[in-house]
Amino acid sequence: MAFDATRMKDFEIAEAAEANMPSPEEWRERLGLEKSEVIPYGRICKLDFMKIAERLKNRPDGKYIEITAITPTPLGEGKTTTTLGLVEGLGRRGLNVGAAIRQPSGGPTMNIKGTAAGGGNALAIPMTEFSLGLTGDINDIMNAHNLAMVALNARMQHERNYSDEELARRNLRRLDIDPTSVAMRWVIDFCAQGLRRIIMGIGGRMDGYLMESGFDIAVSSELMAILAVATSLKDLRDRIGKIIVAYDRKGNPVTTSDLEVAGAMCAYMRNAINPTLISTVEYQPVLVHAGPFANIAIGQSSIIADRVGLKMFDYHVTESGFAADIGFEKFWNVKCRLSGFVPNVSVITTTIRALKMHGGGPAVVPGRPLPEEYMKENLELLERGIPNLLHHISIVKKSGVKPVVCINAFSTDTREEIAMVRRYAEQAGARCALSEHWLKGGEGALELADAVIDACNEKVDFKYLYPQEMPLRQKVEVIAREVYGADGVSWTPEAEAKAKRFESDPAFDGFATIMVKTHLSLSHDPYLKGVPKGWVLPVRDVLVYAGAGFLCPVAGSVSMMPGTGSDPAYRRIDVDVNTGKVLGLF
C-alpha cells in the first residue's frame, strides 16, 4: 500500500517505510548471497562485488535498462524517481528486479536541488543515511584526492628548500614541478563558491609552497570517474597511479606515482570499490555506487554495480546523469564500450512542465514558485516544446536501443496535455507511458513497467556513434552534429593545439571522449532552450584525465564548484534531540 504522498513529506514516508526495511541478514537470504559477500554497515551493507561476480560468472545477464531524460529544468525532471518507480512497478509484476543509482553529493543536498533520493512513493531508504554520506565513498574520494594535493604541495616545498644532494639523502628525486602548470585542485563536498580561487602556502618557508589554487566539488574529482569505470581493485589501483597532478618545467606530466602517493590513495578507496545495498520504499534492492556530476566524472552508475546487478537480477535498471545528449551519449559511447554491456532499452524521463519551458515558458528558478504557465493547461506552449523530446528520442534511436518515453506525472498535468505528448512520442517511434510512481509507487508505474518489458523482448541492433580510433576532433564534430544538433565546431587556438597533440601521441590512443558542456540546453548555452538551430559548438579547452582514460573537450563555461543559493536546504534540516532523527530532508 502506498503512503499518502500528498500529505506526508519525503522524510516522513522514509521513516514509515524504514520500520520494515530488510536488514543485511534478510537481504543475504532474500538475494541468495553468501555470508562473506555481505559487509554490514549498521542497518545497510556493502556487497563484495569480486566474490559475487566470481560466483555468478556463468549466470546469464539480466535485461539491461538505462534511465535518461529530456533537457531538464534547473529542478530536474525525476530520473531517480523514475528509476525507483520503474523498479517498484517491475516488482509489482512479480519480477526479480534491482537498480543501480548514484550517491548524492552533499552540495545539492544542502543547497537547492535536494538529496536525489527520489520522492513520494518512489523513494530510496534509509533516506538519512543515503543523503548524508551513506558508507563513506565520497569521503574516501575526498581524502584520497586531497592526499594527492598534500603530497604535491609538500614536494614543491621540499624541492624549493633542499639541494639535490639533500633530496637524495631523503630518498627523493627532483621532479621540478612547474607551479604554473598544476592540474589538480582541492575538493570539498559542498557548493562553496568562496573557495573557487584561493592562495595557499602563505607564511614562511615551512608553511608549504606559495601558489594559487582552489576547490572543486568532490564528486567532480577524477577519482569519482575512476570509480565509475574501474572493473577491479587492480584496475582501480593502476588508474589511480596514472592521475596527472601537475607538469614539470619541460612540460612532462607528474603523476601520483611520481609523488609516491598512489598506493595510499588506493588504501583510502579500498572499501569504496564495493557498491552499497539499500532499498526502495517497496523493498526492492538498489545498489548505490559512483556519483553525480555528469561532465568530468561521467555521471553514470558504476560498471561494477551494473556487473553485479546484471548477474543478480533478471531486470537491472541503471541511471545516467542529465539528459540524453550528455548522460545517454556517455553511457552509449563510453560506458558500454568499456563494460561490453549492451542495453535493451532506454527510458527517457519527461515532464509536461519541462516541455512547456522548452516551448518558450518563463524561466524556472530553483527556490521560487513555478510561474502560472506551468500550473494550468497550455497546449500551444507544450506543442512548441515537444521538439526537445523528439530530439532526445532520435539520439537514443541512433544507438539501436529501444526508447520508452516516461511521462513523469504531476497533479497539474491535464488529460489533453498527456495525450499530446503520447501522440508525438509514438509518432517518433517510441513507446510512451504515463507513470504516477511519485503518487502511487509501483501500482502507479505498471504502465511504464509493461512498456519496458515489451521493449526488452525486442532485438536490439546496438551500434556506437563513432569508432574508437577516430581522431579526437572528428569525434567532437560527430557528437556536436549528430547528438547536439550543431552546425559544426569551432576551436580556440589553444584547444586545437592540445587536440592535435593528443591525436599525434600514441599515449592517448584509446582514451574516451567525455564532452563537457551545460546540461540545461542541447547547446553550450544554458539559455538556449528547445532545439537550437544555426549554432556552432565552441571548444575552448581539452582536459586530460589520464587515470580515468578521458580526454574532455570543454564547450562553454562549466564551473567545477557550484554556488550555494540564497534559500538552501540546510535552513530547514534539523535533528529531533529526543530521538536523534533527522528532519527536513527532501
UniProtKB/TrEMBL annotation:
ATP binds at T73, P74, L75, G76, E77, G78, K79, T80. Pathway: One-carbon metabolism; tetrahydrofolate interconversion. GO terms for molecular function: ATP binding; formate-tetrahydrofolate ligase activity. Pfam families: FTHFS (PF01268). It is an enzyme of class 6 (ligase). InterPro entries: Formate_THF_ligase, P-loop_NTPase. It comes from the Bacteria. Keywords: ATP-binding, Ligase, Nucleotide-binding, One-carbon metabolism. One of its GO terms (biological process) is tetrahydrofolate interconversion. Its EC number is 6.3.4.3. It catalyses: (6S)-5,6,7,8-tetrahydrofolate + formate + ATP = (6R)-10-formyltetrahydrofolate + ADP + phosphate. NCBIfam families: PRK13507.1 (NF010032). Belongs to the formate--tetrahydrofolate ligase family. HAMAP family: FTHFS. This is Formate--tetrahydrofolate ligase.
